[in-house]
Amino acid sequence: MSKEFVMPKLGMTMEEGTITKWLKKEGDKVEKGEPIVEIMTDKVNMEVESPYDGILLKIVAKEGDVVPILQPIAIIGEEGEEIKTEEPKVEEVIKASPAAKRLAREAGIDLSLVKGTGPDGRIVEKDVLAYIEAHKKVEPTPQVTPEPTVQTIQPAFREETISPIRREIAGRLSKSYREAVHITLEFTADVTSIVKIREKLKEKASANNLPVPTFNDIFIRLVSLVLKDYPNLNAHFDGEKLTIFDAVNMGVAVAVKEGLLVPVVKEAEKKNIFEIAKITNDLIARTREGKVLPEELSGGTFTITNLGMFGIDFFTPIINPPQVAILGIGRIRETLKPGNVVVNEVTLSLSVDHRVVDGAPASMFLRDLGEALKDPVLYLF
Predict the structure, then answer these.
(1) Which of 231, 317, 338, 366 could form a disulfide with 187 if both were Cys (CB 3.0 to 4.6 A apart)?
(2) pLDDT (tens digit per residue) in 276-327
(3) Alpha-carbon gap, residue 329 to 252, rounded angstroms
(4) Is the pTM for the entire model greater than 0.70?
């Protein structure tokens, strides 16, 4: 007897998923536990396994369709089994972006009346705005003879449809910039000791078959410990209440083909430098391969983003909501000081939400982090 294969709930906050690729076609044999479809949810593209043995009788949701959780996406049954027309009937889903849905809900508009201009007819925010504008009561205006028009030649261009990941990133960044009051503080830290210590860490890692800690791993360790003295920076803010966390779940920004993802090192303050190196090495690799799990991208309480490998000294990082702070790290560079002394320095860029974090505690955090970077022995071992 045929069974419905429904859109699975792949994360705590998941409400819908996008079918990005079917790995099987209608008529193919499938086994329980075998990858059958790729689904995009939030910022993760995941292979989803078949829940049943049998034949993929019918694909209900096509590639590109956005389907609410628990709605059918396929029918799996026995070979030769006929499917009645009524059996796979699925309630029609209106494809619309979260921003469009929210705007329509606030304006009391039935989305079925709105024509979508996004990919595959998906309704986007500008479509709802256009509908609202078109249905405003317009006062008649006197006829005016138009001025002669001058023909202009448009430059050549091409349009690209942005990916679901890029749309999600755009939405989150827009939300952060609309709601959080960003201020960014710059601090130059002496990391000469860090550079020397990392050489010793590399030797120890080689001798004991351990992962080699990167400079980013060292920053994760030090920042997580310094944050224990500044709990209000290790927090979430929803616009009304501040939630302060005991554990430091450190988000680590990772560049991928279609944008930026932030996997999380849970309870980073409890882990030694080699444990952190092992975790980040695995997380970053799976993030770039598209194999990171939704729960590994959630729960962050503070974020680090490093552009030093691109030769960047200073930048203004955007807070990852609902977090209240993010630390940007520039390149490590040699600087000649008076007396012909060469030191290694790095510029730190701390963005905080000024609604809940003032400049003074943010400055003191950077000062203390600078001290920890200058003399890190007590923190790393």
Answers:
(1) 366
(2) 999 999 999 999 988 888 889 999 999 999 999 999 999 999 999 999 999 9
(3) 11
(4) no
